Amino acid sequence: MTTDEKKTGAADAKMGKPKAPPPPTLTRLAADAEVESIDGPVAIGGMVGKFVPVLTRLRDGALGFRMMREIREVEASGRILRIVDVSGRAVRVGEGHVFLRADGREARASELAPGDALEAGWTYPAGYVLPDAPEYGAESRGRAWEPTVRVAAIEPAGSGPLFGFTVNETRNYFLTFGARSRAQR
Asked: What is the CB neighbour count within 10 angstroms for residue 18?
């Protein structure tokens, strides 16, 4: 047997092995939901089969980036909820999408209620008052900064494909909506 034949046989053996499935995901995002990537917001529906670093909370509490991979459709047609925060920002997710509350506990989208506080990806120093400027929502201007994403409404938003993925090391990420979510356990 030649060296080339040995290499071919080795390659065939590798190719004959089925690829291990990705770990189960707790993410259920509608195609238009945006994730905070190293390049800025990206809609998850256009990322299937790709990989990109996403904003995450590291073990020491700092923000950093870890690789989002194995982006895939996880449900062909799932019930979608539109989660709206007090400043009017919104994100569309599946009922089973897992957010992290401000106290660190997990909550599925279907379990949220108006007034619930979700962990935010950014904050200002304690006591900071938002300026009276048009880039801030009218309800927030001149008020002390609240370091959470406060849920204002949960609305049915039809059904459609839902997407999930894996995040290396931290297993969590931030949506452009502002809230931290759990990718996998």
From this structure: 6
Q: Compute CA 64 distance to the chain's CA centroid, rounded to the nearest angstrom.
A: 14
CATH domain 23-123+133-182 topology: Endonuclease - Pi-scei; Chain A, domain 1 (2.170.16)
DSSP 22: P
Mean pLDDT, 10 residues at a time, over the chain (185 residues)?
39 67 92 96 96 94 94 97 93 97 96 96 75 74 78 97 97 94 94
pTM recorded for the entire structure: 0.82
H/E run at residue 4:
helix 3-16
Nearest to 169 by CA among 17, 21, 54, 3: 54
Domain limits of the chain?
Answer: 23-123+133-182
How many CB atoms within 10 Å of residue 145? 16
Q: Amino acid identity, residue 18?
A: P
Quote the DSSP letter at residue 103.
T
Phi, psi (deg, nearest 5) at residue 46: -90, 5
